[in-house]
Amino acid sequence: MKLFISPGACSLSPHIALQESGLAFEVEKVNLKTKLTEAGVNFPEINPKGYVPALLLDSGELLTEGPAIVQYIADQVPEKNLAPANGTMARYELQAWLTYIGTELHKSFVPFFHHGSDDWQAVAKANLEARYAYVNQHLADKNYLLGENFSVADGYLFTVTRWLRVSKLDLAAWPHLTAFQQRMAERPGVHAALKAEGLAS
């Protein structure tokens, strides 16, 4: 498998999932400005959507969209318990968290990365404050989103929460979320992904 990434972008989430999975994989960086891969290939020819992440399977099929990719990875190694079994209530809870992170957190950062207006940024900042307050409270008595065990949703939450600095919000306002970020950073798989993307020493 080959995962196409841009360091620090949302593709860090499936990169973490792959590191946690123990599966064999390659990583290829994409310059999102020039749309060229590290190998000099025009990325939209690989993924017509033009953005990361994208996972090229050994079959030649391409899987896109982070929440779908991380569930695919988890399902390849059920013994690793990276996602609850399909058809269980816990699996739907995982999907609910992946959706919440994608729509309520991830997308609220768009105005900060794409130079939105001051008004747009103010609305996004208010959204983030309310949404992160909810996540912080949820984590008050849990190590991870689904309880005591890591899941692929945690990698996604960790990834987008790293972006808080662009919104000028202070992670310290949410102590349970702060502890979660520290806990995640100490996981060998997370550290390996950060190091591979040049985000940690």
Structure description:
- The protein is of the alpha+beta class and 201 residues long.
- 50% of the residues lie in helices and 9% in strands.
- It has two domains: 2-80 and 189-196, Glutaredoxin; 89-186, Glutathione S-transferase Yfyf (Class Pi), Chain A, domain 2, CATH 1.20.1050.10.
- The protein has helices at residues 12-21, 43-46, 66-76, 89-105, 110-113, 118-138, 152-161, 164-167, 175-185, 188-196, and strands at residues 2-5, 26-31, 36-37, 54-56, 62-64.
- A five-stranded mixed β-sheet has the order 3-2-1-4-5.
- The chain is globular and about 45 Å long.
Strand content: 5-15%
User: Can you count the helices?
Assistant: 10
**How do the SSEs run, as a string of H and E?**
EHEEHEEHHHHHHHH
Q: Which architecture of the largest domain does the CATH hierarchy give at level 2? A: Up-down Bundle
Query: On the 0-100 scale, what is the average pLDDT?
Result: 96
Number of domains: 2
Main sheet summary: 5 strands, mixed
CATH class division of the largest domain: Mainly Alpha
Q: Say what the CATH topology of the largest domain is.
A: Glutathione S-transferase Yfyf (Class Pi), Chain A, domain 2
Strands, total number: 5
- Radius of gyration over C-alpha positions, nearest whole angstrom: 17 Å
The strand line-up of the biggest sheet is 3-2-1-4-5
